[in-house]
TrEMBL record, chain A:
Compositional bias per record (Basic residues), positions renumbered to this chain: 10-23, 75-86
Compartment(s) of residence: Nucleus, Nucleolus
UniProt lineage: Eukaryota, Metazoa, Chordata, Craniata, Vertebrata
Keywords on record: Nucleus, Phosphoprotein, Repeat, WD repeat
Highest taxon, organism lineage: Eukaryota
WD repeats, residue ranges: 318-359
Database matches in Pfam families: BING4CT (PF08149), WD40 (PF00400)
Function, in words: Scaffold component of the nucleolar structure. Required for localization of DDX21 and NCL to the granular compartment of the nucleolus. Part of the small subunit (SSU) processome, first precursor of the small eukaryotic ribosomal subunit. During the assembly of the SSU processome in the nucleolus, many ribosome biogenesis factors, an RNA chaperone and ribosomal proteins associate with the nascent pre-rRNA and work in concert to generate RNA folding, modifications, rearrangements and cleavage as well as targeted degradation of pre-ribosomal RNA by the RNA exosome.
Protein name per Swiss-Prot or TrEMBL: WD repeat-containing protein 46
Name of the encoding gene: wdr46
GO cellular component, one term: 90S preribosome
Residue ranges constituting the BING4 C-terminal domain according to the UniProt record: 399-477
Record flagged with keyword Phosphoprotein: yes
Region feature Disordered, mapped onto this chain: 1-86, 516-536, 548-576
Assembly and interaction partners: Part of the small subunit (SSU) processome, composed of more than 70 proteins and the RNA chaperone small nucleolar RNA (snoRNA) U3. Interacts with DDX21, NCL, NOP2 and EBNA1BP2.
TrEMBL record, chain B:
Gene name of this polypeptide: dcaf13
Keywords, sorted A to Z: Nucleus, Repeat, Ribonucleoprotein, Ribosome biogenesis, rRNA processing, Ubl conjugation pathway, WD repeat
PANTHER family: DDB1- AND CUL4-ASSOCIATED FACTOR 13, U3 SMALL NUCLEOLAR RNA U3 SNORNA ASSOCIATED PROTEIN
Similarity annotation: Belongs to the WD repeat DCAF13/WDSOF1 family.
Cellular component annotations (GO), alphabetically ordered: Cul4-RING E3 ubiquitin ligase complex; small-subunit processome
One Pfam family recorded for the sequence: Sof1
GO MF term list: ubiquitin-like ligase-substrate adaptor activity
UniProt pathway: Protein modification; protein ubiquitination
Organism: Betta splendens (Siamese fighting fish)
GO biological process: female gamete generation; maturation of SSU-rRNA from tricistronic rRNA transcript (SSU-rRNA, 5.8S rRNA, LSU-rRNA); protein ubiquitination
Protein's UniProt name: DDB1- and CUL4-associated factor 13
Protein localization: Nucleus, Nucleolus
Predominant location: nucleus
Region (Disordered), start-end ranges: 422-453
Length: 576, 453
């Protein structure tokens, strides 16, 4: 084996020597000499299989193969292929270079993917056993203690029903009772961070970018509290807010109000970015698409509308249900939207193509919907929470899991990076175990559940520096990467609109003042007329030229036509 | 982590051990697990764009190119020479015949010698770095030792050659003991002899500068006062060819990497890059100066060059860019007469009329000193981002913005108006002439009058 390896090495070297390269002046010194050591090693790597010190050949030569489906996950969408001009070699080189770089990065990412430490959770029943019949108690008993402790009930019957929100890392839970009770909890350690009663009805609660601040939509105004329960702001520009969504990368708090206004608050500078009158009444159904920061609103007439802060009208209007829309949810990849309506139907849409994919009939109808990071759908029907799997790919007949809570469900939320579903209801809060719901591997630079205070501070600074401007919100998040193909006329028009005047417009002729009485009104008028005539002359000249050209063309065509018609008829010569 | 079997039910729930994600002791660095899944990182492009915008803004914030001013000369600095072996040594000659040797790291003059009686017109360091040559208006060529004389010794040149005419420039061969001077004619000297081994003339004129080609070492280029650039082969008796331009060329500099290109600094406010094989048309016309360009020097990478101008600014151009990427000026800097790009490609040195030599950074916002790896990585990443988004209007606007002295700003505007007027006139002449009788002439063709073989 060893000798064979050596033989191949030698052969490669012989082959290398025989191959003649074109003469280069910088290679002159080396000509005729032995190739340098480095060169030798390179040659070996290219031509012969690697031989180890022991002489054994590498049984798996070359880089490890990567599965194509893994690479596919990291491929970025590109709508149009960039094609530079044939002669633009420099641009061509740049484009091929970047393409190569991105392909390499994708492959690397796919390779690293194998090393991710965690696997998603799952739940499998007996052969003839439905997983939906397995009770939460059984699951909590079956799993380890720490996971088992994640199933718990908070009995808060006094101030319910409760809305809830998990923060981006999934460590902190915010509860807001209808009758004014607001509490934030580090729910894994079960430590209460603060608990207040705002002495007003609470419509919705939402964490802001960190666990240090949260927004509460109260009876009249929008309030911001810190994690100790101290009121930081009362924002009187935002009244009668019913639902809120926080766009973490834009630092925008989007609110939907009972007066039909969709408002955006920039929480980093405290300014209202946009206020849109949707003209469709009370807005109590709202969700966001986390991939493009578009807000989805559900309306009582059965439509779902899509909004961005840059446009006063809805980007898209979809008629989804025959009755009113009760709840909307969009999945993590921004591909699917799930809606439920008063017509007791639950529908799945592809929101890239705006096409309905599936429609399900739920006997009681779903009042709340929530989608987990791995695509599990939870729907609340009365006091029962049902969880479905693969609602968009296969027709689902029965739920994956089900659980009955004490009161009517008011809020549903999957906890990010955990197999936990939080349910807020009339009698308090229930934390359920849903195996396979959460993304098993988090990214430490984006949302790290185990981050220290220092890390959080650093992350906050970075995130604020990278705050995306609200102008960049659009249906296609990659729009920024496309080549602007606007032509000169369009660009000029945009410029005129931006400036408020036409910078290239011909200046109006103002006659110079002349002395000795030559600037009398009549003389000035005469001079003006002269210039005007000159301009007119150009216009007329152009018009005449065009006319002549057209005429010539017409004559030419006529001639051709007659020539053609003359030729076509063979018996024309006998015609009188 | 664990599978559990109760009544044949299989269940696994995410349960992370904090020990795997939190550092063990305070002395460790924080653990940062990564997941590159694109769905966990939305708004990729918008975030990158924001980062690029921030990087561009920071670049302009940190753009402080001026490092130091070296003062000590008692008259305008007329010429400079880089040491061929030592990065920290610079030689400069002034209009009163004084030559100074500088230590750049300490920003101090280490040696002063009175080399000539009037202007020091040119100086060059021998390729080995042990001695240097100066030429002056007193018609002498002097060779000096690089080491300072010992205590009590007189400052004496190694050799002095008395010429017949005034010398205006000198350059040394890159490999052999041969040097060239220019004045009334271009002379090639052997170091051992006191008379030139070859003299080149082509018509009656005087030459302002001569430069050896760094790769084809037998080739020379020189600029003559009859508006021509002449190329020579040292081995031949006669010059090779010359190109005559509309205005006089002051100096030329060879591209050290692609040595068939050279760039010349012209009196018509422009610089021209020529391919020496095709002299009938410059490859690039570098505009932006608003007065005569006096000196030019290439960076050792051959990608960029720096030019000094009578308009009191120095500008940096990319080798194929027709507009400058950078302009340096200060309130006190007067007409810049000579400029050099340091051999480590990081600094620029400019010598000006008001007796100072200034040290600039070649990249205005670069941080000096050693970078820690994380810093280096961040710099590289920001560089790549800036490159990727350079054509976005907002980023381009910020990256291109430079503050200019009012005078230069106004003159630039004025020149643009003049240029536009000339174009308009040409257009009108063409419009009112017989079609085809006034063909359009490219801006590149305009400066070239003739090429003589």
């Amino acid at each position: 084996m060893a000798s064979a390896g050596e033989a191949t090495v030698k052969k490669a070297h012989v082959g290398k020597k025989e191959k003649k390269r074109p003469a280069r002046y910088w290679l002159k010194a080396q000509h005729g000499e032995k190739p340098t050591k480095k060169r030798k090693r390179e040659g070996q790597r290219e031509d012969a299989p690697k031989s180890s010190i022991s002489g054994k050949a590498d049984p798996f030569p070359g880089p490890a193969p990567v599965r194509q489906d893994r690479v596919q996950r990291f491929k970025r969408e590109r709508s149009k292929k960039l094609k530079p001009h044939r002669n633009n070699l420099k641009l061509k080189r740049i484009i091929t270079g970047t393409k190569k770089d991105s392909e390499m990065a994708q492959e690397h990412a796919a390779r690293v993917d194998v090393l991710l430490p965690e696997e998603p959770g799952f739940l499998e029943g007996d052969e003839d056993e439905d997983t939906c019949t397995i009770s939460q108690e059984d699951i909590a008993e079956a799993v380890d203690i720490t996971s088992g402790a994640k199933y718990f009930n908070l009995k808060l019957s006094q101030f319910g029903p409760y809305r809830l929100d998990y923060n981006k890392t999934g460590r902190h839970l915010l509860l807001g009772g209808r009758r004014g009770h607001v509490a934030c909890i580090d729910w894994q350690t079960k430590q209460l961070m603060c608990e207040i009663n705002v002495m007003e009805s609470v419509n919705d609660v939402k964490w802001l970018h960190t666990e240090a601040m949260y927004a509460v939509a109260q009876k009249k105004w929008l309030y911001i509290y810190d994690s100790k329960g101290i009121e930081l702001h009362c924002i009187r520009k935002f009244n009668d807010v019913l639902r809120m969504q926080f766009l973490p990368y834009h630092f925008l708090l989007a609110t939907a109000s009972a007066t039909g206004f969709l408002q955006y608050l920039d929480v980093s500078v405290g300014k209202e970015v946009a206020a849109i009158c949707t003209k469709s009444g009370r807005l109590d159904v709202m969700c966001q698409n986390s991939q493009n920061a578009i807000i989805h609103l559900g309306h009582p007439n059965g439509t779902v509308t899509l909004w961005s802060p840059n446009q006063k009208e809805a980007l898209v209007k979809l008629l989804c249900h025959q009755g009113g829309v009760r709840s909307v949810a969009v999945d993590k990849t921004g591909t699917y939207m799930v809606t439920s309506g008063m017509d007791k139907k639950m529908k799945v849409y592809d929101i890239r193509a705006f096409k309905p994919l599936k429609s399900y009939f739920l006997p009681a109808g779903a009042s709340c919907l929530s989608l987990s990071q791995r695509g599990l759908l939870s729907a609340a029907t009365g006091d029962v929470v049902q969880v479905y799997r693969d609602v968009w790919s296969t027709p689902v007949t029965k739920p994956y899991m089900a659980h009955r809570v004490r009161g009517a469900v008011w809020g549903l939320h999957f906890c990010p990076f955990e197999d936990v579903l939080g349910v807020g209801h009339g009698e308090g809060f229930t934390s359920m175990l849903i195996p396979g719901a959460g993304e098993p591997n988090f990214d430490g630079f984006d949302a790290n559940p185990f981050r220290s205070a220092k890390q959080r501070q650093e992350w906050e600074v970075k995130a604020l520096l990278e705050k995306i401007q609200p102008e960049l919100i659009s249906l296609d998040p990659n729009q920024l990467g496309y080549v602007d193909r606007a032509n000169m006329a369009q660009r000029h028009q945009d410029r005129v609109e931006a400036l408020g005047y036409d910078p290239l417009a011909k200046e109006k002729f103002v006659p110079r003042f002349k002395k000795k009485g030559r600037s009398s009104a009549g003389a000035v008028e005469r001079r003006k007329k002269k210039v005007a005539h000159e301009d007119q002359r150009d216009v007329i000249k152009e018009a005449v030229e065009k006319k002549l050209k057209d005429e010539r063309k017409r004559v030419q065509q006529k001639k051709q036509k007659t020539a053609l018609s003359e030729k076509s008829a063979a018996l024309d010569r006998f015609r009188k | 982590m664990f599978f559990h079997f109760i009544d044949t039910m299989k269940v696994k729930v995410l349960s992370r051990n904090p020990d795997d994600f939190v550092r063990e002791t305070k002395l460790d660095i924080q653990r940062v697990p990564r997941n590159y899944d694109p769905t966990l990182h939305p708004f990729e492009l918008s975030r990158e764009y924001t980062r690029a915008l921030n990087a561009t803004k920071l670049e302009r914030v940190f753009a402080k190119p001026f490092v130091a001013s070296l003062d000590g000369h008692r008259d305008g600095v007329n010429c400079m020479a880089k040491h061929t072996k030592s990065l920290s040594t610079l030689l400069s000659g002034s209009c009163d015949g004084q030559v100074k040797v500088w230590n750049l790291t300490k920003h101090e003059c280490v040696r002063t010698l009175q080399a000539h009686e009037s202007f020091v017109r040119g100086m060059v360091v021998r390729y080995c770095g042990t001695s240097f040559f100066t030429v002056g208006e007193d018609k002498t060529i002097k060779q000096w030792k690089m080491e300072a004389p010992g205590y009590g010794e007189e400052e004496e040149p190694l050799k002095t050659i008395l010429g017949k005419t005034v010398f205006t420039g000198v350059d040394h061969h890159w490999k052999d003991g041969v040097f060239a001077t220019c004045g009334q004619q271009v002379d090639i000297w052997d170091e051992q002899r006191s008379s030139p081994i070859r003299s080149f003339t082509w018509g009656v004129d005087s030459f302002s500068s001569v430069r050896f080609n760094p790769v084809q070492t037998e080739l020379l280029g020189s600029c003559a006062s009859d508006r021509s650039i002449v190329l020579y082969d040292m081995r031949e008796a006669a010059p090779l060819k010359k190109v005559i331009m509309t205005m006089r060329t002051n100096t030329l500099s060879w591209n050290p990497m692609e040595a068939y290109y050279f760039t010349c600094a012209n009196e018509d406010y422009n610089l021209y890059t020529y391919d020496m094989r095709f002299l009938d048309r410059p490859i690039v016309v570098h505009t932006d100066h608003v007065s005569a360009v006096l000196d030019v020097d290439y960076s050792p990478t051959g990608q960029e060059f720096v030019s000094a101008s009578f308009d009191k600014t120095i500008r940096i151009f990319r080798k194929d860019g027709s507009n400058s990427r950078e302009v340096y000026h200060t309130k006190r800097m007067q007409h810049v007469i000579c400029v050099k790009w340091s051999s480590d490609s990081k600094y620029i040195l400019s010598g000006s009329d008001e007796m100072n030599i200034r040290l600039w950074k070649a990249s205005a916002s670069e941080k000096l000193g050693v970078l820690v790896p994380r810093e280096r990585q961040a710099v590289n990443y920001n560089q790549k981002l800036k490159e990727k988004f350079q054509h976005f209007p907002q980023i381009r606007r910020i990256a291109r913005h430079r503050h200019l002295p009012k005078l230069i700003y106004r003159q630039t505007k004025e020149l643009n108006i003049m240029k536009e007027a000339r174009r308009r006139k040409e257009r009108n002449v063409r419009k009112h002439s017989k079609p085809g009788s006034v063909p359009p002439v490219s801006e590149k063709d305009k400066p070239v009058v003739a090429v003589v073989q």
